[in-house]
Structures are given as structure tokens and as C-alpha cells.
Amino acid sequence: MDTVTAPTIVITGASDGIGAAAARLLRAALPDSRLVLVGRNPGKTAAIAAETGAEHHVADYARLDEVRDLAATLRGLERIDVLANNAGSMFDGPIRTADGFELTWQVNQLAPYLLTNLLLPTLLSSRASVVATSSVASAFLSRFDPTDPETQRNFSPARAYGNSKLGNVLFTRELHTRYHARGLNTVAFHPGVIATNFGAETSGVIHYGYQTAIARMFRPAPDGGRNLAYFVAGVPGIHWESGSYYNDRRRPGIQKRAGRDPELAARVFEDTADALGVSWE
């Protein structure tokens, strides 16, 4: 992040939960920053933007045309110092979107991948940081098959979510490999088990845990927001190392072998580019 000029910070998934909490914290800590908030819910996104004095945009990641429209708008920014890819959720399924992809994989992995790709020239010229809200599910719930990254076979909401969060980690690592030498910094982190609206669009154990009284035992949204704000405001090389994944205590997080596999990271990166029909510099 540029330490001379006030930073421009883009946060997706900012209408509620962790993203909204981080926006409040960052406004207090960096009052001169240019905050740009993105959310799916127009009313909630506008309310958080008004509260924090931020700009805001609405995009539904279940529609990739809305991601492309969002990117076209954000390319109008002179610079982007931090792109926080925070939007994500868990869904029943498998559900095929209008774009032809499984919904969980599209919302959690394809949409932030596409947004980052379309903003790459701005991110490189800004020597930006790309921060990904991943999850410990990337290690404990994933059973990743690179021939079926969307989890169309043997689908369960938990496994699909874990695979998509592993996708975030692999994307973070490969972005670092390809672009760190050109000034881009990347990091993924687990925010903690946070009491939010997560799991509202699925059924089963995860839904039960997040949407019932059990959630009272979870950490409040500001705790996860503090972790997101920490990585957004932190200085790469001092507060965190580029290309890494951290747990909710801001320490190197546990990963299966797949999460540390550079060949798998490169394969998933290229396969995703082919699926979306995009190229990288």
C-alpha cells in the first residue's frame, strides 16, 4: 500500500457481516482513505456506505455480467491500493448459474478471479495488495479434484464451500508467483468462525449452526472485520508475507498438501482462465 497518498480500498461483500465491520474499522483508522464498497443488497450496501462516507456499487456474483460491469466501473478509479475479495457464501446444490457454472464455485472463486483479472492493469500500476477472505474450510472441508473443481460430483454444500475456499488460497499463491516481482502483493486469511448471515442460503448442519442459537457461541462480526481490516491496512513484508495464507490469529494457517502445491495452483489458475475465456498479462 502506498504510504504517502491516502489509499483507495475496494471491499467486496461489504453490505453486511465481516465486510461491513471492516469498512467501519478502516474508516476510523484511515479517515482520509477512499473506501469503495461493493455488495449484493442495494439497501444494505447504501446504508453502510452512508455510515462510513464511502462510495458504493451493487453487483450480484451469481451473474458474471454484473462482475464485468463492476470492473468496468472500477477501472475508472485512478488507482486501487487494496482489492479485498471478501464476498462469498455457501449454497445448496449443485445449482447451475445462467453463466453455466456451479453457484458456490462461481460466487466464491470465479467472480473474484474475474474481477481481479479485469482490474489487473490498475492493480499493477498501483502496486496493490489483493486480500482474499478464505476459510479454514479450505483445509478441513475440501476434497479437491482438479478435474471437477466445481464439485459437480459427490456434491455437498460443505465440500463445495471448502473446495472454493481452497481455490482462493491457490489463486492467492499463483498471483504471487506471477506478479509479485511486478509489485503485486497477495494474501489469504481465515477470519474466524463468525456470527453472520453466512449459511442462510443453505440447509443442513452449517445452516443450523449459523442460523440458530448455536451462533451465539461464535465470535461477533467485528472480530472477523478486525482481521480483514488488519490485512487490508497492513504492510506486506512487515505485517504479512505475500503469497501466504493466515489463520484467524494472523499466523500461518494449516493447509493440506493441495493448498501448498504450486503445480496445482498453476493448473487451477490456467483452467479457470480457460473456463472464463480470459487471459493474463
UniProtKB/TrEMBL annotation:
Top-rank taxon, per record: Bacteria
Segments traversing the membrane: none
Keywords: Oxidoreductase
All residue ranges annotated as the Ketoreductase domain in the record: 7-197
InterPro entries in alphabetical order: KR_dom, NAD(P)-bd_dom_sf, SDR_fam
PANTHER family recorded: PHOSPHATIDYLINOSITOL-GLYCAN BIOSYNTHESIS CLASS F PROTEIN (PTHR43157:SF31), PHOSPHATIDYLINOSITOL-GLYCAN BIOSYNTHESIS CLASS F PROTEIN-RELATED (PTHR43157)
Protein name per its UniProtKB record: SDR family NAD(P)-dependent oxidoreductase
Organism: Corynebacterium nasicanis
